[in-house]
Amino acid sequence: MKPNHPTFSKRFRSVMPLACILAGLISGCGTPIPVTTPESTDARLSKIEKDLQDLAARIGPSVSPSAAPAAATLDANRVKALRVKPDPVTVKVGAKTNLDPILLVMDNDETSVVTNLSLLDVSLKNLSSSDTGDVATIDSSGQISGIKVGAAVLTVKLGAVTTTVPVIVESATAASATPTPTATPTPAATATPTPTPTPTPASTSNIKSIAVDPESYELTVGGFVTVGQIIVTLADDAQGFLSNRQNVTWDVANTSVATINQGGTITAVAVGETTITVSYQGVSKAFLVKVIAN
């Protein structure tokens, strides 16, 4: 085929640039094309990472999408005490009552409140191990429901800090030891008798005995628990629970082992045993308190 043949000229022109490039590497068609070694994958990733770090430095610190809001974060190591109110909790069978927001006392004596109980370890158990079935229940909002007459212990824990509060469930119809007044007799036909006076509720002459439930308590040193129900038996054998403890007196045989306040909360002081006597309107009952080592 001759060089001036149309087909030859067309093919020659199509391969001409490639020939020039190859020749240019040696010396011919123009400036040599630089040859670079491709970057490795690690090198490219390192460069991308550095670019991202430079970008983050220019726009300032970022917030991790998974970071929880500060209000929902508790540093349990900084909490030195928990306060639960009311103390004790009193509720009637079939009724409900709400806890106040739980108070946290921090290590710098600042305080804050918690209304979301899911941030805490909360449990409610019967005070007497022999009592079957729940005396009361508590939901995630802090609402306590009375199920049956008895006593339970509400335990609230955050990290290494624990506090307990007694929960007393009273009868829906008889909340206190109020005797039924003696009925006025019908006057006889021959004479008008003096009406029998209505007895004063909870007077000494009408109280047959008192008891506490449970009848004994075991604590570890430094622990505390509130006496459960105070049961009053009247002269006619009617019974009721004493809900107001302001007129009750407590006597601890050995205060070096345990102490008790007016509300009936026992605090364990040292290992040992002692008795505590509760008195009301001249009637008394002693019960045992045992303190063991942690």
Outline the low-pLDDT stretches.
24-30, 60-72, 198-204
Order of helices and strands: HHEEEEEEEEEEEEEEEEEEEE
Q: Tell me what the CATH architecture of the domain at 174-179 and 201-294 is.
A: Sandwich
CATH level 3 topology of the domain at 174-179 and 201-294:
Immunoglobulin-like
Describe the model:
This protein has 294 residues and is mainly beta. Among the domains are: 98 residues, Immunoglobulin-like; 100 residues, Immunoglobulin-like (Sandwich), CATH 2.60.40. It is built from 2 helices and 20 strands. A 4-stranded mixed beta sheet has the order 2-10-9-6, with no helix packed on it. A hairpin with a 2-residue loop joins β19 and β20. It is elongated and about 125 Å long.
List keywords for this structure.
294 residues; Immunoglobulin-like; four-stranded mixed beta sheet; elongated
Summarize the structure.
This protein has 294 residues and is mainly beta.
What's the arrangement of secondary structure elements?
Layout: H1 6-26, H2 41-59, E1 79-83, E2 89-92, E3 96-98, E4 102-106, E5 111-114, E6 121-126, E7 136-138, E8 143-146, E9 150-158, E10 161-170, E11 207-213, E12 216-220, E13 224-226, E14 229-234, E15 239-241, E16 249-252, E17 258-260, E18 265-268, E19 272-280, E20 283-292
Parallel strand pairs: 2-10, 12-20
Antiparallel strand pairs: 1-4, 3-8, 4-5, 6-9, 7-8, 9-10, 11-14, 13-18, 14-15, 16-19, 17-18, 19-20
